[in-house]
Structure to design on (196 residues):
């Protein structure tokens, strides 16, 4: 399957997906990476792996590019923009997102990047984690594919916690993409069933 990845930052999730297609067990290939940030290091990572890397901020153009590359799966990997209902409907049930918390906690508007981990620490929860979900019309709200917990340690700060959560993000994102490419995910209402 052709995988299109949308990024905004450093691209460690993108790197993990690329590695998963090259050395891991993802039966797919990343054939285009699009960023809304011109200097996102994620674009460099794409170039280093001979993958077309495109800076684009206009959503209609992004949709056109994804269609031109015949993308079968769109992955939002650290993509810090909310996509429109039109975008969602163009790729219904073919867009997945990784969020660095256990949805529905610490998600939705304003909760992104380090802010999530600071809110987790400030609230005093004992566990956080990461969530991979299908994207629907409401931010961070679509059917959940996979989650994995991360213990919050007493001496954690947002930086140390984000590092441990990021490792878990890479793991469950790759696993979710592997399952999608093997057509092992089925959505029933809000629930996603894994037919391994
Ligand atoms: C990180 O905050 C990560 O938790 C979230 O997006 C941000 C950047 O990730 N998913 P990446 O290193 O650009 O993939």
């Amino acid at each position: 399957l052709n995988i299109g990845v949308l990024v905004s930052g450093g691209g460690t999730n993108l790197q993990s997906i690329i590695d998963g297609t090259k050395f891991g067990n993802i039966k797919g290939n990343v054939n285009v990476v699009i960023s809304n940030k011109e200097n996102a290091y994620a674009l460099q990572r794409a170039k280093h792996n001979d993958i077309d890397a495109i800076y684009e901020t206009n959503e209609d153009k992004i949709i056109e590019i994804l269609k031109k590359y015949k993308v079968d799966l769109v992955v939002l990997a650290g993509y810090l923009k909310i996509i429109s209902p039109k975008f969602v409907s163009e790729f219904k049930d073919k867009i997945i997102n990784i969020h660095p918390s256990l949805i529905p906690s610490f998600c939705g508007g304003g909760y992104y990047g380090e802010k999530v981990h600071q809110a987790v620490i400030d609230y005093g929860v004992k566990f956080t984690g990461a969530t991979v979900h299908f994207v629907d019309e409401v931010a961070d709200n679509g059917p959940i594919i996979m989650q994995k917990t991360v213990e919050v340690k007493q001496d954690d700060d947002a930086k140390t916690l984000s590092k441990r959560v990021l490792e878990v993000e890479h793991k469950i994102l790759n696993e979710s993409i592997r399952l999608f490419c093997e057509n092992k995910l089925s959505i029933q209402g809000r629930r996603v069933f894994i037919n391994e």
